[in-house]
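Supplementary Note 2. Why include the ligand at all?

Several targets in our set were suspected to adopt different conformations when bound, so apo predictions alone were not considered sufficient. For every target with a known small-molecule partner we therefore ran a joint prediction. The input for nicotinamide-adenine-dinucleotide is given below.
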Amino acid sequence: MFFAHERRRRGVRRVGVGVAGTGRMGRVHLANLTRRCAVAELACVFDADPDRAAAVAAEFGVPAAKTFDELVERCEGVVVATSTGSHAELTVAAAQAGRPVFCEKPLSLDRATTVSTIEAVEAAGVPLQVGFHRRFDPDWAAAAERIHAGELGEVTLFRTSLRDMTPPDPNFLSGSGGFFVDVTVHDLDVARWLVGEVVEVTARGAASDPAFAALGDIDTAVCVLRFANGALGVIDNSRSARYGYECSTEVMGTRATVRVEAPRPVEWRTPGLASYPLARDFEERYPAAYAAELDAFARSVRDGAATRCTGRDGLAAFDLALAATESWRSGTSIAI
Ligand SMILES: NC(=O)c1ccc[n+]([C@@H]2O[C@H](COP(=O)([O-])OP(=O)(O)OC[C@H]3O[C@@H](n4cnc5c(N)ncnc54)[C@H](O)[C@@H]3O)[C@@H](O)[C@H]2O)c1
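The joint prediction is reproduced in token form.
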């Protein structure tokens, strides 16, 4: 119904996606929709800053909608990559207009709003996918498949590291929901995905940079998890690792252990030294994952395929992030 004849290329019916929010993350999606995705393609953009929207529309060769409603009209599925505070309202508006929604994490900074958003989307009967990109990265997905097939035996230990090279813009930080909701939430989702439900969270945090302390936030944290199946987990996170962007995991089991590290496209060996390049940010580290999550979204729009990362998954990870925040503030362990 939506210009399907125009979107059919080499026998593949591509799904026209509208992107709301054309900042740091929105641009990652725009680049993927234009260059990497096989099923999803860019149909239209919208941003609260009309000058930014117009510039991005010209750059990517698509129309800029004047309103969010116009964006919804012009597409088959909506990507919400706006500042976190607007996710819930835009997601509900798109769903009630009958459009499936891909929403960046988190759905909201408020739990009640997160729940009412999920319920509104469920009532509208459209798919909702939350932006936990690691679930779509080929290496992480392959590890998950073998873990879920039981190749590790009983999982005993889970570890993840997520470290940014440099902190984001201070303007972003003030509306981010804080360290655990913005950063650790990715690892908490991965913990549930790879190992299972978490029953206890203990978190400690520190602000090595006074700018974070001034915001009442932290830039370094460690979380200890206890899983329902008896396994233990540890997550370490930093906003400014300085050497590069790191995102890695290790899951240990009674029969095997799996590690997912950054790929090494090239390694130089010189006397007494091996060196290889490190990714600088999430975009450089995960080009395939960010494209694959949008293609998965497009398949759920086009074919009704089940969403691999639902609003309920977003809520569960958000609840763990809130527990981590409470643990850090209170100095206690939080039972889930
Ligand atoms: N999945 C990931 O790996 C990942 C990484 C970074 C950011 N994010 C998420 O992406 C979202 C955006 O983050 P960012 O770093 O791109 O922020 P950003 O500040 O760079 O960009 C946000 C954009 O949204 C626009 N905007 C704000 N409110 C709007 C509204 N109501 N309607 C239309 N446009 C609006 C702003 O004008 C801006 O262009 C955040 O929720 C963040 O948590 C996810």
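Residues 20-26, 46-49, 52, 81-84, 86, 104-105, 131, 133, 172, 182, 282 surround nicotinamide-adenine-dinucleotide (CB under 6 Å). Confidence is low (pLDDT under 50) at residues 1-6. Comparable summaries for the other entries are listed in the accompanying table.
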